[in-house]
Specification:
- This protein is an alpha+beta fold.
- It has a domain of 55 residues.
- The protein has a two-stranded antiparallel ribbon with strand order 1-2.
Length: 89
């Protein structure tokens, strides 16, 4: 998820998504935003509150994401995010 454009994003990148993007700046395999934030990005607006950021990688790259996720982050996690409420059945 690398932004090679020189133009400003049409909509601001939410803090949680920007945090994940920054964590994966040096991750070489392709990775993808998925789940609720991906739907919101496609729509161009936030449709609801999100408690997580879902990403996906191709199956052959699973080992790389596990290795990458064991290294310490270079920045702190977003502090303004409230914890997820319990899911309703």
């Amino acid at each position: 998820m690398r932004d090679h454009s020189s133009r400003e994003a049409a909509t601001p990148v939410p803090e949680a998504v920007a945090y994940v993007r920054d964590l994966f700046l040096d991750f070489r395999p392709a990775w993808f935003l998925c789940g609720g934030w991906a739907a919101d990005a496609w729509l161009g607006r936030q449709t609801r509150d999100h408690c997580d950021v879902d990403i996906a990688v191709f199956h052959p790259d699973q080992h790389a994401i596990f290795e990458h996720s064991t290294s310490p982050p270079t920045s702190t996690s977003p502090s303004s995010e409230a914890p997820c409420p319990p899911r309703q059945p």
